[in-house]
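User: Predict the structure for this protein chain, please.
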Amino acid sequence: MLFPFRLVATRCKDMDSQLITLAEQQDGLVTLAQLRACVPARHRQRKLVADGSIRRIAPSTYKISGSPGSHRQQLRAGLLSLGHSSWVSYEAAAALHRLDRSDPTAVEFTVTRGRSVSSLPFSVHTTATVPTIDRVTVDGLRCLSATRTIIDLAHARRPVPRIEAAIDSAVRLGLSAPQALATRLETLRGSGRWGCRLIEGLVVDSGGHSPLERRFLQIVREAGITRPTTQAIQRHGSRHIARVDFLFEQHSVVVEVSGQHGHSSPTERARDAQRRNELQELGLRVFEYTYRNVMREPQMVVGTLRRRLCDEK
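Assistant: Here is the predicted structure, written as structure tokens:
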């Protein structure tokens, strides 16, 4: 990410062009080591600080004058200050991954144990090791994976709805999957990490795209009905018809769940009708449950669903 501050910075004759280039590549920041490499003379380094051309904002990390402040810059400052064995994590990682209900202002990192993390202007967690499978890069920033982030949020004892939202959105975005979570939990089980059992219970009903879809899956499971395929794509030849909420493939039944407001405009209703007609042309029976049905009338949902799955086409 480049920042429009080159002309401001070059007004100082002591500002090295290489230092400016580095800052442009690092969200307006440079490390002390980079400063010393680009400006070897100590008196020139002191002058840059004295005249405000650069400002220390974290241990061994400086901000170039003219670079705009941002949440991303705070995350970059932490990574530069903590060094290569550091990763954006917990709520900050959830925000980078764009998981639902994330805190867009969070600044949190994880480092391997044995590092000094005292007197730092941000939250730092420590861990024994960070396996390669947990390491990713998001928008140019070192970050823990969505799967590891979900586990960390549970370990931090975030509220259950928060964990559910993280799981469902990670699955929806293709950043994790129930099997990936199960595999990672199996690895961590022996570590005594708090929250593993909580996630195991929540993963059971994951795969939907919303709390409403999660609740429907819970109703299906508790009723002993075979779990449907979630977010199933339907095609006619090479043409995409629709992505349906739930497909009970053995029975050729599609179930959709609609939110509290649903589609109310004429255009939306016409689109819904066309979609339903095309699914029916594929030989599928399409049924819909409302928000009220799923959230307040689970027995009705189970009764009608059993009948519909048993009925012949």
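Confidence is low (pLDDT under 50) at residues 1-12.
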